[in-house]
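Encoded backbone
================
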Amino acid sequence: MTQYFASCFTFFFALSWLFPYLQKTYGLTTVETGFMTAIPLAAGAAGNWLGGVGSDFAVRRTGSIASLRYVAMLGFALAAIGLVGSLNADTAIVAVLFLSLTVFGADMTLPPSWAFCIDVGGERAGTVTGQMNMVGAFGAFATGLAFPYLYSAFNSVTPFFLTAVALNLGAATLWAFVPRAKRAEPTDSTSPA
């Protein structure tokens, strides 16, 4: 669940603060900024798709749901690399390309996250996925507050981006410790006692 906080924290920057960040930092027009902000979101859709394909491939190849960790860890690593690269970007297009890598990586973590919750939850998969989604919503909420407050306090986007990098690296580390889930088999409530 904690790793989903990092995923949503990272992704929701693209939905909330990416437009004003690009416009103010690179002096873009509204139309230019609109086109530029669409690119990371398209990359996110591709990352989500690839995360699903990669998850299916990993589980089929190994026979273990624990192999989802590799897809998620790669996604979080790509997100962290993209964030660091965007901090060093001199032009809007370079920043957008790195931020596209960030959103691609963050969205790549979604399919393994949901698949793992279903495996861990078994009969209570709805409860487990609901809890994970709630923690993710806290991450999205934190983004909405963290970006303007950190920018106001430091007059720089660097603290926010470094926070996101740390969250992504922490989430990748959490996935490294994911064992094969042991769940109880469903009970047959219709059999005689």
In short: The chain has a mean pLDDT of 91. The radius of gyration is 18 Å.
